[in-house]
């Protein structure tokens, strides 16, 4: 037992070694500076801004939801602590935690409606809150609040500024360890995935709203603690301007962006560069040019966005990776070839049989002849257009259903209704008898419906393996299980172990399609909705996709395919449905459907039919 | 008319085009076929100037345009209809088309051109006032091509116009491209995955593979070539 604990402690030490070292360096610097208050104060400011920006980084960097009103949480923390201390005599140590809880609550209340919004709305909505808070606090007489001067540990007040430096170092360590834990966790992966592509994340079973709110709450609570330390260590008297002012977000943004958003070390590096610069400028020329510091932050913000959008740490880490790869290659004596190491085309991958037993699909009784999916009288309208009109469809288990129809016939809409992106006005969707009509995409995914997209929706900045892992997370797997599943799925679909570590952005069209299949499979589906898998593929590649789909059914997975490459589709579909103008107009065996006069008239065209007859 | 000499282009450290030379004559129809990732789209992007070429020379109508910005090339009459129907979804069909005629030379002919486009694409005529985002995939593709024509191109470059279209609409698109050529007298450069249709239409074609041109010939030769038959027409 003891040995185990010791081992675990060692493991933690190693994982967070860099953080511990950096924080120790902070302390050593403080020791070297000695009693000089001026330099100690600069160090303290660096630590505080690094903590604030690292907290901000959770929701805005990793989650990609920029919180323009982030000062709301610093201010809430500081005001809660100071007011509780002044009015009720509550120790700031406890007040600090109360402030964190209050900030978390505010984040929850603000986030619940606004985090549903996409794009810039959330960012803009958050800025309203500090702007509302300032006049309210001013009105009730709290425009400026001085901190009662009690030199005691319980009052978080110390004569020596170095005590605050120690507090700030500990705070920074806590924040960085939290960020590191998030980075390595399932939660962190989901956060990065939804930042990249919310629609796809939902399709993979991730509850995006919950993930975003959780990140927002974490950022807010940590920010509140930082606000308290800032108030006690630097301010002595807090004001609505100093705690809720717009200058805070300008500094937070410029430090984070210059250092590198969505990286562990970015905010700390940014703070270590910008804060001393601003302080020195302020003391050197601040008397002649007041506000010089703000100009520095503003200028760095603009310059950072234009010239170094990935930040100093972002840039450095790419170089580091490059050189370490080069070094490794030199050691192994391998010639470094720039660009992707191999393509599927080179390997002439032949998809043999897929063995997906390890997924243990939930489709228990494959023998029962009940339908896996029933679509009953479903209608959907978009402002006057009716993409689906009274659609009825029964999908038997373990077969391939091909869906064809003209562009705009409602095929993709049908998929979106089945997996919950859209809710129909009328009708019901049943998955093995269970009503899923009103379920959200992530719950539909967890019930066993996988999805691939017409326009591939891969997380392009995650690696192949990480993309597939996101699928496994949807079904509730932890990091190590997810990674094991992802490896096996990738191997089955023909990704080499080397290719697994390449970012998805560099994949070929065929590989991107295979990645979408892999990701959908990792969610352990009973039913997979496949939207135009062959678009943009050559005939040979299209046939490979056909083989894969056929293999899925052999593994007990039902597949519904939308496809325009009809000559390939009929080779592997067990039966087909023809849609036109939102209605099912033909149904039956593939031969039947493509001979249907309506389908020829509206979709296939006589020319196609002739060509098909010839071949 | 267009002559690209040994152009190369880099994409994130990878050479996607390696010293490619192609030419398109006046009123000529040139098809470029090749598998995914062969560099077809990059080639068009390099010619239209949305991607910089790292070496080589591009000459259009006896003018060196290698260093010219994309909008300046449009002004000269090189019109690129990119892959994936990049229309303006929140503008109406008519507004989309009007924006196509932004080129100085095209402005004067706006009404005239509109008539030509509407004749070519009767379905767009019926949907003049509809928001482009609410059009079906096939209609959006037609709009994208129509918008290209509104600019009165000298060289019209089409990138996979049949992508994601139903078999019938794909046929319609190819028919229309044939029409455009007969009616407008414009040089066309077509990039297609559907080799059969693309080759049927062209005077001359190029086969692109891994950033290099592996074959260049006229239509008959290409369609008769065993390599093309096997690799691109899917006939065993």
Structure described in brief:
The complex is a heterodimer of chains A (615) and B (236). With 615 residues, chain A is of the alpha/beta class. Chain A is built from 25 helices and twelve strands.
How would you sum up this structure, described in words?
The complex is a heterodimer of chains A (615) and B (236). Chain A is of the alpha/beta class and 615 residues long. Chain A has helices at residues 2-15, 17-33, 37-62, 71-88, 92-114, 121-139, 161-184, 186-196, 198-203, 208-235, 240-244, 246-259, 266-285, 292-307, 311-332, 344-347, 411-418, 441-446, 464-474, 479-492, 509-522, 539-554, 566-572, 590-595, 597-614; strands at residues 144-146, 237-239, 371-382, 385-396, 400-404, 426-431, 434-435, 449-452, 527-531, 558-562, 575-580, 583-588. In chain A, the strands form 3 sheets. In chain A, strands 8-9-10-5-11-12 form a 6-stranded mixed beta sheet, with helices on both faces. Chain A has a 4-stranded antiparallel beta sheet with strand order 4-3-6-7, with helices on one face. In chain A, helix 22 links the parallel strand 9 and strand 10 (558-562). Chain A is elongated, with a radius of gyration of 29 Å. The termini of chain A are far apart. With 236 residues, chain B is an alpha/beta fold. In chain B, 40% of the residues lie in helices and 26% in strands. Chain B is built from 11 helices and 10 strands. In chain B, strands 6-7-8-3-9-10 form a 6-stranded mixed beta sheet, sandwiched between helices. In chain B, a hairpin with a 2-residue loop joins strand 9 and strand 10. The interface between A and B is medium-sized, with 34 and 30 residues.
């Amino acid at each position: 037992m003891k040995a185990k604990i010791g081992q675990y402690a060692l493991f933690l030490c190693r994982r967070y070694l860099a953080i511990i070292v950096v924080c120790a360096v902070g302390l050593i610097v403080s020791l070297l500076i000695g009693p000089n208050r001026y330099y100690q104060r600069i160090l303290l400011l660096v630590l505080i801004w690094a903590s604030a920006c690292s907290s901000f980084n959770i929701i805005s960097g990793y989650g990609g939801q920029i919180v323009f009103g982030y000062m709301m949480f610093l201010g809430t923390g500081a005001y809660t602590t100071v007011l509780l201390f002044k009015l009720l005599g509550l120790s700031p140590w406890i007040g600090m935690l109360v402030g964190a809880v209050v900030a978390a609550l505010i984040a929850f209340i603000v986030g619940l409606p606004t985090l549903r919004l996409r794009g810039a709305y959330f960012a803009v909505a958050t800025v309203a809150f500090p702007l509302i808070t300032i006049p309210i606090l001013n009105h009730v007489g709290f425009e400026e609040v001085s901190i009662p001067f009690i030199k005691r540990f319980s009052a978080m007040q110390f004569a020596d500024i170095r005590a605050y430096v120690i507090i700030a170092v500990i705070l920074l360590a806590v924040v960085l360890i939290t960020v590191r834990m998030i980075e390595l966790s399932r939660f962190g992966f989901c956060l990065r995935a939804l930042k990249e592509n919310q629609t796809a994340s939902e399709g993979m079973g991730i509850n995006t709203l919950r993930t975003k709110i959780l990140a927002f709450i974490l950022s807010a609570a940590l920010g509140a603690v930082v606000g308290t330390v800032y108030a006690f260590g630097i301010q002595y008297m807090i004001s609505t301007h100093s705690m809720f002012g717009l200058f805070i977000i300008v500094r937070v943004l410029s430090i984070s962006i210059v250092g590198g958003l969505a990286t562990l070390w970015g905010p700390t590096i940014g703070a270590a560069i910008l804060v001393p610069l601003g302080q020195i400028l302020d003391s050197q020329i601040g008397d002649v040019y007041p506000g010089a510091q703000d100009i520095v932050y503003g200028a760095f913000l603009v310059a950072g966005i234009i010239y170094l959008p990935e930040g100093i740490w972002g840039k450095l880490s790419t170089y580091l990776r490059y050189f370490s790869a080069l070094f490794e290659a030199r050691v192994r004596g391998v010639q470094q070839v720039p660009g992707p190491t191999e393509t599927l085309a080179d390997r002439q991958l032949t998809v043999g049989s897929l063995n997906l037993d390890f997924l243990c699909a939930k489709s228990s009784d494959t023998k029962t002849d009940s339908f896996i999916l029933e679509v009953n009288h479903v209608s959907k309208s978009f402002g006057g257009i009716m993409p689906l009109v009274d659609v009825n469809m029964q999908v038997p288990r373990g077969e391939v259903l091909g869906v064809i129809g003209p562009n705009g016939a409602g095929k993709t809409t049908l998929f979106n209704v089945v997996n919950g992106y859209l809710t129909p006005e009328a009708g019901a969707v049943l998955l093995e008898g269970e009503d899923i009509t009103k379920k959200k995409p992530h719950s539909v995914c967890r019930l066993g419906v996988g999805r691939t997209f017409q326009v591939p929706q891969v997380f392009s900045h995650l690696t192949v393996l990480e993309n597939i892992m996101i699928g496994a997370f949807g079904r509730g797997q932890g990091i190590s299980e997810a990674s094991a599943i992802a490896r096996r799925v990738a191997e089955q679909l023909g990704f080499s172990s080397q290719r697994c570590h390449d970012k998805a952005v560099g994949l070929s069209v065929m590989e991107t399609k295979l990645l979408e299949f892999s990701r959908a499979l990792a969610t352990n589906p009973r039913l997979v909705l496949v939207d135009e898998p062959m678009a943009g593929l050559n005939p040979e590649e299209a046939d490979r996709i056909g083989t894969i789909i056929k293999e899925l059914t052999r593994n007990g997975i039902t597949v519904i395919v939308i496809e325009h490459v009809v000559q390939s589709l009929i080779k592997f579909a067990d039966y087909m449905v023809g849609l036109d103008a939102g209605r099912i107009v033909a149904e039956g065996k593939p031969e039947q459907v493509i001979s249907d006069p309506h389908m020829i008239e509206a979709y296939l065209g006589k020319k196609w039919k002739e060509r098909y007859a010839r071949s | 008319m267009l002559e690209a000499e040994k152009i190369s282009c880099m994409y994130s450290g990878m050479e996607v085009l390696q010293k490619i030379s192609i030419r398109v004559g006046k009123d000529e129809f040139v098809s470029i076929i090749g598998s995914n990732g062969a560099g077809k789209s990059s080639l068009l992007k390099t010619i239209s100037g949305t991607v910089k070429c790292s070496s080589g020379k591009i000459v259009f109508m006896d003018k060196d345009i290698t260093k010219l910005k994309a909008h300046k090339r449009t002004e000269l009459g090189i019109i690129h209809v990119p892959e994936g129907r990049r229309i303006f979804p929140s503008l109406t069909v008519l507004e989309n088309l009007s924006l196509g005629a932004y080129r100085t030379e095209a402005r004067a002919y706006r009404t005239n051109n509109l008539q030509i486009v509407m004749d070519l694409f009767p379905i767009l005529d019926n949907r003049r006032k509809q928001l482009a985002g609410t059009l079906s995939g096939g209609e959006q593709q037609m709009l994208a091509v129509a918008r290209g024509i509104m600019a009165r191109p000298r060289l019209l470059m089409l990138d996979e116009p049949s992508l994601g279209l139903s078999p019938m609409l794909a046929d319609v698109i190819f028919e229309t491209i044939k029409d455009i050529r007969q009616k407008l007298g414009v040089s066309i450069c077509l990039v297609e995955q559907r080799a059969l249709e693309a080759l049927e239409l062209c005077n001359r074609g190029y086969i692109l593979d891994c950033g290099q041109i592996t074959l260049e010939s006229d239509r008959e030769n290409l369609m008769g070539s065993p390599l093309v038959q096997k690799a691109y027409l899917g006939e065993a």
